[in-house]
Structures are given as structure tokens and as C-alpha cells.
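This protein record is not my work; I was only asked to verify it. Take the sequence as given and treat only the C-alpha cells as open to question. I have pasted the whole thing underneath without changing anything:
***
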Amino acid sequence: MKILLAVSGGIDSMYMAERSLRGDLSSSVDSEFAVAHCNFGLRGEESDGDEKFVRDWCAARGVRLFVRRFETSAYAVAHGISIEMAARELRYAWFAELCSQEGFDAVSVAHNADDNAETLLLNLLRGCGSRGLRGMSADSGEFPSRIIRPLLGVSRSEIRSWMDSEGLSWREDSTNTDTYYKRNKLRSKVMPVFAEINPSYLRTLAADMERFAQVDDIAEDYYALAAQECILPDGAIDLKKVVSFKHWEYLLFRFTEGRLNADGLLRLKKSVESGRPLGGKIFGPYKVRKGKLRLI
């Protein structure tokens, strides 16, 4: 198996890289590795220092290295998105490109147990639906950019303990302490309180995410069956058929997800529940015509 290691130079990715080359991770057995490093150009000399650190590490171990520099800020402005989202889009698009061009079977990223717990809470705060409660997948199974996460069962404290015990070095990202970023604020201010309440909260949340995933699979089957009856060939939603289902409110959420915001969905639910005629009413990008919810 040919695996591309996404290595930033930070402690998590250096742990993943070191243990992958030693064959310590499940994905490491009989695998061939190369490293991909993204220089997003957001921290000036610090970003360049990260790149040099990864270059030196790869050279010392004879590991093939791919480096891409991005104009991240310009990309974010051009696409009207946040810096974080721009960096995500840029790196995963490049990873997919590398996999296709160089024949890699998967990209290995260094998300750990703490990252997974933080993602769960951030998803809850965004209003995520059941899919956001699943947490991260250990193996996306998707090609051409299959993403594997071999560290989801490893905590941040375990990673630091092992790196210290081995006398290994890594790069510190100065922005990790900046609580302007939501994840950093959660990490520094909220997670310590969780640890006080339940020292085993990472294991508890991990077990919950496994159960949430099972529930979401059931919900997905329910949605798929309902969609066959409720969504017409032209994409319109038959409201009469929707309300014939026991969990029709969930179905409305799924059918309009990504297009109708929370306020619009609430108005639609209340209008449907009232039983009054809805012809001509507008809900966000939708309009009701002859009992069918259609995009305008």
C-alpha cells in the first residue's frame, strides 16, 4: 500500500510520521510512504521554518517529499471563505491530485482523539444533524483521495509523552494558542473543564460517537426510503407524502438541508403543521405550488 503522509511539522504529524516509518501503526504494515507538506504562507518565516524542518527530516530518513506553497489569503478572499476553510480546500485538492498522479492509495492525516472530540462539539455548536455526531472517520474509503486517520484512538497527551520519551523534536505553531480561532478557544477553555468533570471524557465521547454513527446509519436508511416516495423526478418535494411519515420533521430537514436555514425550516414546519393551504408561500429559496415544495 502506498501512503502519503500529510506532515505539517507539528507534534501530531511528526508522531504519525515517526511511528509509520517504524511500522507501529496498523496502516504501516507492508506500506510504502512519502510525505506531503503544505506551506500556506500564513506565518512568514515560521511557515518557512516548518517547511525546512520537514525537508530535513525527510532527507535524513530518505523519504520522498512533496511540497506545495499556497497563496492561501488570496484564495480565501477570491472565494469569500475563511482562512481555515481555504487551507482545507487547498490541501485536500492537492492531496487528491498527488494520489491520482503518483499512484498513492491513501492520504494519512494526524487527527487524534482530542481533535475528534473537539470536532464533535464544534459540529454540535454549528447545528449539524446526526451526521455531524459521528465524529471523524478512521478510513473514508473514498478514492481517488482516500483519507485514513490512524491516530483517532491516541490522545494528545499520549502523543507528547511518547515524543518526549524518544527525544524527538517538532515544530510549534504559534497560532495554536490564539483563542480567536474557535477550535483553539474550545481546546484551551472548555476541554479542561470536561477533564475536571470526567477525566475519561475522551473515551466516553469516542464511545458515544460510535453509537451516534450507528443511529445515523439507521436514519440514512430511513431518509433514502422516504426520498424515493417524497422527491419527484423534477426535484420537487411532495409535502403531502412527507407528512405521511412518522418522522416527517426530520425528513423536511434532510430534504432541504444546505438550502434552507434554521429560521426558514422552522417557518416551514409550523406552516405544514397548521394544516392551512400553503400555495404561493415562499420559504427561503423554495416556493409551494400545488402542495409541492419547489426551488424558485
In short: The chain has a mean pLDDT of 94. DSSP finds eleven helices and nine strands in the chain. The radius of gyration is 23 Å.
